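Hello forum,

I keep getting stuck at the same step: I have a sequence, I want structure tokens, and every attempt I make locally crashes halfway through. Rather than fight my setup again tonight, could one of you with a working pipeline run this one for me? It's a single chain of 172 residues.
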Amino acid sequence: MSAGNGRPYADPYVAGVGLGLVLLASFVVMGRGLGASGAFAVAASDLVGWAAPSRAESSSYFSGYRALRGAWRWWLPLEVAGVALGGYLSARVAGRVRRAVERGPSVSRGARLGLAFAGGALMGIGAVIARGCTSGLALTGGSLLAVGSWVFMGTAFAAGYALAPLLRRVWR
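Reply #2:
Ran it on my machine without issues. Output:
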């Protein structure tokens, strides 16, 4: 499988086994699973704590993150930094590092970036409402056999399959 640029993508089964091993290692080493949204909550709690300390301490949301200390506190931001570094290294190894905005011929660069930003913002809002991100819900929750996580994964895949024919037209 290839996107037409660089070498073929990684085998999805090998990548899935690798991701499972990373998840297992996170449970063994840190005693908790994977999830990215907590990193932003830690950063937000620090920012609010700096700008309005009394508000940060009185908020049950921010105070919970501010109470974390040591490795527990910095585990999530380091995880997100590792994801970014790993993504870059993976693209570098596959010969896919370049400055470009991937888009269909009928979509302008600005529209593509605007839609990507809007989609990311919606995902972020959803993560705040759900008190967790897709990686934490699907990977960690799914590995713990949480029913809500399996319902989410089924719904996410069904939505992806339902929207794929519509979005495919934009990329042609």
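The chain has a mean pLDDT of 82. If your local run keeps crashing, start a new thread with the error log.
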